[in-house]
DNA sequence: GTTTAAATTAAACGTTTGTTTAATTGTTAG
DNA sequence: CTAACAATTAAACAAACGTTTAATTTAAAC
């Protein structure tokens, strides 16, 4: 867990927002330096290279993510309540780290820079394990259906949100949403409850 | 609907696969020319510029997509069967145009080249309209629930698939999938039926 | 066979790229 | 004060970029 000084963080934050909006290859170190208000040589000086800075950024963010799922377990909640809390956590996390997820998304989908996303893979594995545990708990107590594919539920949760964010211009037009605030509110309310409703319908016996 | 000769198509196809795997900014026109086995000047000669070639490519692909949803309507199917057919269509379409969707995904998410995706937006709108029609048909006949957000169902369908493809390395490890063929089969079988099951649970009254 | 236009080429264009250098300034410790 | 090291700078570097040029080859039309 490396510590960075203020100037290094300036650089990383400027890079994060630019990488997200312009892409890694679409962002020059000169534009990063300008946004971070430092000399272009500082980037190589501090991080070695543009690519190593990307790795540093991803490591910095993903190590932040080591999830505190434990308190969900400790609390006295029904399995369904736990699932709902997990969905809230997923959504707020993705929303809070929008830029990082955008970057990750692209880096994962291209073969160009096959960096070791060990740290990210770890987080994903932890999440999946925690999720599986909750579902099995619900199944054993007879609340959840058993003919389901547990591994494919997180993709449905996260995929729905990511797809909605990726096609934002389309949904803004389709739903008549005009401001940033209204879009965020739609995610917080309608989209979140749609996801919960969907997962609930899939998991829980109706009666 | 512009027609392209064989050499132009060679260029477009080479560009498509490279843009998908390396990104637009990560792909040089020299590498495209090499892959298409043409001189680098041919790209400017035929398309004007690298960027215009991207537009040509997207237009070429999306105009292919003008969906033949109509025959789904004409056939004598229950609303649920229609939904299932639509899901099959979505999935096979995304699978067939994997590269194009990868490119679109990135272009939509960055502010760098705000091209007019009019053609793509049109396809999406048509799809949404057709989908809405089917759902309302099911609701009016009392088969489908009415307390649902129709606009958010396509994001759930497509988002699940796209997320699964984007995080392929993770799911390969998580599910113990080793070959390309096994992965494609998993999509065709398990993933497809998971999506159908999920949407069905959301839509249909249990009994 | 000649004319005309399209296709194709190698070479060069001016930028921009990521990175390095070498010199200078700032800071801290003895 | 000065030695030592970190931080910062402007300038230069070679390489790669997208695009254009000008010359040549190919194909079609008359």
TrEMBL record, chains A, B:
Feature: DNA-binding region: 28-47
InterPro entries: DNA-bd_HTH_TetR-type_CS, Homeodomain-like_sf, HTH-type_TetR-like_transc_reg, HTH_TetR, NicS_C, Tet_transcr_reg_TetR-rel_C_sf
One Pfam family per UniProt: TetR_C_29
GO molecular function list: DNA binding
PROSITE patterns, alphabetized: HTH_TETR_1, HTH_TETR_2
Source organism, top-level taxon: Bacteria
HTH tetR-type domain ranges (all copies): 5-65
Keywords: DNA-binding
Gene3D superfamilies: Homeodomain-like (1.10.10.60), Tetracycline Repressor, domain 2 (1.10.357.10)
Residue stretches spanning the membrane: none
Protein name: Transcriptional regulator
Lineage, highest ranks first: Bacteria, Pseudomonadati, Bacteroidota, Flavobacteriia, Flavobacteriales
């Amino acid at each position: 867990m490396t510590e960075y000084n203020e100037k290094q963080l300036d650089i990383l934050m400027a890079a994060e927002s630019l990488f997200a909006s312009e892409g890694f290859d679409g962002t020059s170190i000169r534009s990063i330096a300008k946004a971070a208000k430092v000399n272009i040589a500082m980037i190589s000086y501090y991080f070695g290279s543009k690519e190593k800075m990307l790795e540093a950024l991803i490591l910095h963010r993903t190590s932040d993510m080591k999830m505190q799922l434990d308190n969900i377990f400790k609390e006295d909640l029904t399995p369904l309540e736990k699932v709902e809390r997990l969905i809230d956590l997923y959504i707020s996390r993705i929303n809070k780290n929008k830029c990082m997820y955008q970057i990750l998304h692209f880096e994962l989908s291209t073969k160009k820079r096959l960096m070791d996303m060990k740290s990210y893979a770890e987080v994903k594995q932890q999440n999946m394990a925690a999720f599986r545990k909750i579902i099995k708990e619900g199944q054993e107590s007879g609340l959840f259906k058993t003919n389901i594919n547990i591994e494919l539920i997180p993709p449905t949760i996260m995929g729905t949100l990511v797809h909605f964010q990726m096609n934002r211009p389309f949904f803004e037009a389709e739903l008549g949403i005009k401001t940033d605030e209204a879009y965020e509110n739609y995610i917080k309310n309608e989209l979140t409850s749609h996801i919960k409703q969907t997962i609930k319908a899939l998991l829980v016996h109706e009666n």
